[in-house]
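lol forgot to send this yesterday, sorry. struct tokens for the thing we talked abt
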């Protein structure tokens, strides 16, 4: 019961964030560090500065990867792994990526 309540709270927060417009200042998150956990990337969507973005696998009990879908450049994809870090150098523009292991595990990074 307590876990279900927490899950609902997290889901609600994510929904609110996704619905915020960009002028509201609270859409997703900002930064060049993204965590990879089971079935989610955080923050997502992320706004990052041009340069290196570091993905860190955190508390992942399943294997995940970062596979680029669309973007102004095409960085090398990460390996499929359960722990560790992966870095990609991104140019200005909007990137989308996903995990090929888990359908629906998607992410967006707006590089400014
Ligand atoms: Cu995955």
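and heres what i got for the seq, position by position
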């Amino acid at each position: 019961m307590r876990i279900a309540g927490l899950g609902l709270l997290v889901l609600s927060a994510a929904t609110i964030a996704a619905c915020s417009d960009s002028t509201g200042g609270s859409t997703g998150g900002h930064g060049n560090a993204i965590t990879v956990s089971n079935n989610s990337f955080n923050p997502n969507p992320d706004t990052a500065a041009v340069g290196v973005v570091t993905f860190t696998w955190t508390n992942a009990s399943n294997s995940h990867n970062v596979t680029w879908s669309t973007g102004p450049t095409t960085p090398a994809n990460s390996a499929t792994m359960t722990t560790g870090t992966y870095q990609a150098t991104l140019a200005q523009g909007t990137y989308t990526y996903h995990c090929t292991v888990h359908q629906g595990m998607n992410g967006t990074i707006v590089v400014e």
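Residues 64, 99, 101-102, 105 surround copper (II) ion (CB under 6 Å). anyway ping me if u want another try
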